[in-house]
Structure formats: structure tokens, C-alpha cells
Design a protein that fits this description.
Strand order of the largest sheet: 8-7-18-17-19-20-23-16-15-11
CATH topology of the largest domain: BirA Bifunctional Protein, domain 2
CATH superfamily of the largest domain: Bira Bifunctional Protein, Domain 2
Distance between the termini: 20 Å
Oligomer: single chain
Strand content: 25-35%
Largest sheet: 10 strands, mixed
Shape: globular
Number of domains: 3
């Protein structure tokens, strides 16, 4: 079920014409209704809700109760709204869920009205306009549909037929794995999770119990989903498989800049860039073994009487290249890098959510082939700093994420200084999952995780010490003694999936909005860095275009709002788009070459010349990549891509 909540001064509607034959009957004279001071729940009941209608209604009731408490509303308007989902339930099931939700609300002493189902209705609504006045949620009932159950049964069989999904032995092992959970403080002391004092570490507590419970299903919709649509960045693609997204020009620009930035940092670190195929033969002897060591679900494709899987990381291609390469100990650590566009994991449907968890994603993947464990441990420290630096450049600080570290008991006992050193460098306690035995190909792995607005965690940067795949893929290097040896392999994504970075940035800004603060992108990622607003488009547009050309010549993204609305309205529009610098340009400004610049995050306008503006922006963005505007410079020339603002 999907619900769009609007906290409204009022809503009024009129049922005009039946949209479906089974539309609810409306008594004559009751076609119109109105409710004042209310929470409007625009609701789309989905096919998944048919598995448990009462459960779906209970989830809707709980969510409405929660949101109504946050906005202090006791009047509720339930409004069926099919446009929220491409996967609607049958009408009779939808009415059943709506009626049950209405019943639960009335029993809880809410004043409830329900708009009729199955009608074309006209409506007027006045949204209150505070930070909580527009919210959305995606709810899934407890229980699963018969079709999904059947698919789950196929997974359990581990079939490799083209129409079924393979489930790796590692994935099965992960589900059954018994772990010991600790919090490690910055001095290296281990405390069992249930005994740790989380009073000053609220997000770490949420992360720790999220990891322990291993529940990835979504109950509420996180903040970034509404923001990615409102800002015209990206959205779901209903014509594709779930977890595959469409990017609009502004979103594609941000993604492209992040891709280039992370790649530049890896190349600076010493990464050797490669490109490899996106699909591989499931019966390749080496790959078949590796599939069962990697905890991920695969997409499969049948071709030429073979079954292929879509890669879920760059490991396969890089390892096969390394197998064929002539490598000396002098070349180590050898750092092989690819930005995979795309990697694929067939995440379970209930786990998919915005750009937090996808089935197709962009993964920077840098492996290091090391001569031995000692070299691997030294390289591991260097890469940990790389990960922290990359996230910081993207606008994500250590205070914004929590660290989870997974390790075998034996490796921990033998390498305490390495592990405590990571916690000390991070500067705050970390979550440790310790295994008695090794079930996977790695002996140590960390992830830097962001905990979002609905208390779900998502991994960003990660690195692993792999002690199996050097031998499994028969990767060799010639050592000092002339003998062939297998390398120890490090697996690192310095930022995590690029989509996860976008998700984190939007969630962080959503949190600021909830606190009444001003949201913003890092300046180098802002789709428009400077907006010029001519006082009179007829009189000042030509000069604005000349000024824009000069500013753009300094590698700054600048556009011009040449629309005919009032100055105030155009300024507000720029603020809605999170434009960092807004300059109103009239006769006085052009004559003096001084502008009252509205700088995002500052209360008062700042006097600034063109030269001062350029200098300030270039100083703040000098270490980052640049791309031109993703849209025409004149706002009047731009189409609207996202209609659900």
C-alpha cells in the first residue's frame, strides 16, 4: 500500500462520474463533501495487500495514527488515489482494506470521512506548508502472496534453471549463522551489545539492533523518496523490473559527478582502471564455486543453451583478467578498478526502497592483490582512510555513519591492534559481529553504514580481506624466490553504490528539513550553482545572458530565470530547487557590479561582486570535477520531467 499524507486546512471533493463498473454507490445529494483541519490520506491499495487485507488495514491504521500524532490532527479523510501505484489490487479488495481502515480509526475515536471508491472526482485542497505537511509511506502487510511463496520455494531448492533463481550457499549460511555481537569503544574494549550504554549513541543502537534482527523489509517510506521526486532527480521506472530507476537530467548530473569524483580518487590512490562484461556463464567451473561463496541473489539469462548470471560486483571480470596476467611481487599491491554500471542483485521485493536498496546499481569496485597477509593488513589501513576521505568529499562525515565490522574469532585474537586501530581512526564506538568459524571467503570485513529516517541501515564504504579467491581463480604472482604464489585479495568499494550516496545525501537533508533547517547539496553537486533573476526579463535579460556566459567561462553552472513571474516568486522557486547563490539583476546591480546575493544557509543577503562570487565558488569546488548545466540555461526552455511535485 502507498499513502500520500497531506496535512490540510481543508479538502473538498465532488464525485462526478463512475470510473469503474464496481464503483461504490453514492446517495443522491451526497456527491460532495468537505473536511476542515484534517490529515488527508491519499491511498493506493496494491496487489501485495490482497494477501492479508486486515493486516494491510492495520498497517495503514498504525501509520495514520503515527502521522496524525505528529501533526496533531484528529480529523482524517481517507481518499482512494490509484495514481500512486502501477500495481493496484482488485477493486473489491481495495474497498475492503479502506473500509477496515476506516473502522479501526473510528474505534480509536478519530473523526473519519472516506471518499467514495471508483469515481472520477474533482477536489480542492489547501496544504498547510510546514515541514511535516507532505509525507508519504509504503506499507507491506505481514504474510506473502502465493506467487511469492512459490518463488521462495524455488530459491530454497537452489535450482540453476533459466527461469529460477540460484541461492548461494553463503546466503543460506548467512541466514543460519550464529554470531556474537559486541560494541567496541575507541580504546578497543569489547562490550556485549545488550550491556552497552547507548545513551550518547542513538544511531549506533538503531544500527546494532537492525543488524542483529536482519529485517530488511520496509514498513514506512524514508524521506529521500519524496525529495528525489520533488527535486526532479529520479523516480521508479514502472516499465522495468522493480529496483531499476529512471534518472532525470539533474539527477543524472549528480550521479555523473559522483562517479567521476570517486573514480578520480581511486586512480589517485593507484587504481588501474578496467572494463569487464556484465554477464558470466553459471557453469564456468571457477565462477560456479564463487557464486556459492557470495551472499547475493542473482539475475539469470538463458542464451545459446547456456545460463548466464548478471554480475553483482566487478570481482569476476577482474579476477579472470588477473588470472591471465603476468604479475611479479614488484607489482604488488596491484589495485584493479572498475566502476560497474551496472551491478545486479535480485533483492527481495519487500526490501526494495527508493535508492537505498536496488536491483541494478552503480558500484565502484577496487580490488588489491597483495603478496601476503601482512601486506594486505597494511594496505587495508590505507584504504580505510581512502573510504573516509571519499565519503567526506561527497558530503558525508563520520558523524553521519556507523561502522559495522565482521571478523572471525581467530583473526580478531591475532590482529587486535589492526581492528582497534580502525575504531580509533573513526573516533567512535563500532559494532562487531564475531564468528567462531569462517563461512565466507573473507576473514575481516567492515562497512560504513548510514541509518536513515525510518531506522533502516544501508552500507556505504566497505573492504574485505579475502583468503580464498587467489587460489580459487588461480591468480598467481612470481615472488622474490622465483616461485609462483597466490595473492591475498582485498575487496573495496570506497563509497559504496553511487545510488547509496545520493540516498544518504537526500536523507541527511530530509533530517535537516524535519528540524526546520535549510537543506542543500554540496556546492560541487548542485545542479545549478548560481541563478540570475533579471528584474525585468524584457529589459535585463540580454545583460543577464552576458553575465551568465562570463560566469560559466569560470566553470560554474549558472542559469537564468527569464519567466514573467514576480521577483519574489522566482526567488522562492530557486530556493525550492536548493540553488546555492541567487542574484537579482537590475539597473543598479549592473551599474555597480555589486549584487545582493542570497547565499543558501545565510539569513541575510551578502554584498558580492562578480569577481568575489566567482572566487568564492571556485575556492569551494576546486578539488572536485565539473560538468555543465544538465538543462537549457533559460528556465523558460526547460520541460517538466516529474509531475508529482
Amino acid at each position: 500500500m502507498k499513502i500520500l499524507f497531506i496535512h490540510a486546512d481543508f479538502i473538498e471533493y465532488e464525485a462526478r462520474k463512475k470510473a469503474i463498473k464496481s464503483a461504490e454507490e453514492v446517495a443522491k445529494g451526497k456527491e460532495k463533501d468537505r473536511m476542515e483541519e484534517c490529515l488527508v490520506a491519499f491511498t493506493a491499495v496494491e496487489k501485495v495487500d490482497e494477501t492479508n487485507p486486515k493486516g494491510a488495514a492495520k498497517k495503514a491504521f498504525d501509520e495514520i495514527k503515527k502521522i496524525s500524532a505528529e501533526v496533531a490532527a484528529k480529523n482524517i479523510m481517507l481518499y482512494p488515489y490509484a495514481h500512486l501505484s502501477p500495481d493496484l489490487s482488485k477493486p473489491e479488495q481495495a474497498v475492503e482494506v479502506m473500509k477496515e481502515t476506516e473502522k479501526l480509526l473510528k474505534e480509536a475515536k478519530y473523526h473519519v470521512k472516506r471518499a467514495p471508491f471508483g469515481w472520477y472526482k474533482s477536489f480542492n485542497i489547501a496544504c498547510k506548508g510546514h515541514p511535516l505537511s507532505e509525507l508519504s509511506s509504503t506499507l507491506a502487510p505481514d504474510g506473502e502472496a502465493e506467487g511469492e511463496k512459490a518463488e521462495s520455494d524455488k530459491e530454497a531448492l537452489g535450482s540453476i534453471k533459466a527461469d529460477a533463481e540460484i541461492v548461494s550457499e553463503a546466503l543460506k549460511a548467512e541466514e543460519k549463522l550464529k554470531s556474537h555481537w559486541y560494541i567496541m569503544d575507541v580504546d578497543g574494549k569489547l562490550v556485549e551489545v545488550n550491556d552497552f550504554d547507548f545513551s550518547n549513541h542513538v544511531k549506533l543502537k538503531k544500527f546494532a539492533f537492525y543488524e542483529k534482527d536482519k529485517d530488511r523489509t520496509n514498513v514506512c517510506e524514508p524521506l529521500h523518496i519524496a525529495l528525489m521526486k520533488k527535486l526532479e532527480l529520479l523516480d521508479y521506472e514502472p516499465a522495468s523490473d522493480s529496483g531499476n530507476m529512471r534518472y532525470y537530467p539533474k539527477g543524472r548530473l549528480i550521479k555523473k559527478l559522483l562517479e567521476e569524483y570517486v573514480t578520480d580518487k581511486v586512480v589517485e590512490y593507484g587504481g588501474v582502471e578496467l572494463e569487464t562484461p556484465i554477464m558470466y556463464d553459471m557453469k564456468h567451473p571457477t565462477l560456479e564455486k564463487y557464486l556459492h561463496k557470495f551472499p547475493a541473489r542473482q539475475y539469470q539469462i538463458a542464451s545459446d543453451k547456456k545460463t548466464f548470471f548478471l554480475r553483482f560486483a566487478a570481482c569476476f571480470g577482474q579476477f579472470l583478467i588477473a588470472h591471465d596476467a603476468v604479475i611479479s611481487y614488484k607489482h604488488l599491491p596491484l589495485k584493479l578498478y572498475e566502476l560497474t554500471r551496472y551491478s545486479f542483485r535480485r533483492e527481495q521485493r519487500g526490501e526494495l526502497c527508493g535508492v537505498r536498496r536496488l536491483r541494478a546499481f552503480t558500484m565502484p569496485d577496487v580490488h588489491a592483490l597483495c603478496a601476503d597477509l601482512e601486506q594486505a593488513k597494511e594496505e587495508y589501513k590505507i584504504r580505510f582512510q581512502l573510504c573516509m576521505d571519499v565519503l567526506k568529499g561527497c558530503g558525508i562525515e563520520p558523524k553521519d555513519y556507523e561502522m559495522g565490522l565482521r571478523v572471525t574469532k581467530e583473526f580478531y585474537e591475532q590482529n587486535k591492534s589492526l581492528i582497534t586501530g580502525l575504531a580509533k581512526k573513526l573516533g567512535k564506538p563500532i559494532l562487531v559481529e564475531m564468528w567462531d568459524d569462517r563461512k565466507f571467503y573473507f576473514i575481516l570485513k567492515y562497512e560504513l553504514n548510514f541509518v536513515d529516517s525510518v531506522d533502516k541501515a544501508a552500507a556505504l564504504s566497505t573492504d574485505q580481506i579475502d583468503v580464498e579467491n587467489g587460489e580459487r581463480y588461480d591468480m598467481n604472482f612470481t615472488d622474490k624466490d622465483g616461485k609462483k604464489k597466490h595473492p591475498v585479495v582485498l575487496h573495496c568499494s570506497p563509497s559504496g553504490a553511487i545510488e547509496r550516496v545520493i540516498y544518504t545525501l537526500l536523507e541527511l537533508q530530509g533530517e535537516k528539513i524535519m528540524k526546520g533547517q535549510v537543506p542543500e547539496f554540496p556546492l560541487w553537486l548542485a545542479p545549478t550553482q548560481v541563478r540570475l533573476i533579471p528584474v525585468s526579463p524584457e529589459k535585463h535579460l540580454e545583460k543577464c545572458n552576458e553575465l551568465a556566459k562570463e560566469i560559466f567561462g569560470e566553470r560554474i553552472r549558472v542559469d537564468v530565470d527569464d519567466n514573467s513571474e514576480s521577483i519574489g516568486k522566482r526567488v522562492r522557486q530557486a530556493e525550492k530547487e536548493w540553488v546555492p547563490y541567487i542574484l537579482v539583476v537590475g539597473d543598479e546591480e549592473l551599474k555597480a557590479d555589486k549584487f545582493k546575493a542570497r547565499v543558501r544557509g545565510k539569513k541575510d543577503a551578502v554584498d558580492m561582486s562578480k569577481a568575489e562570487l566567482i572566487k568564492e565558488i571556485k575556492e569551494k569546488t576546486k578539488e572536485f570535477p565539473f560538468k555543465p548545466l544538465p538543462l537549457p540555461q533559460l528556465l523558460s526552455k526547460r520541460p517538466q520531467f516529474q509531475t508529482m511535485n
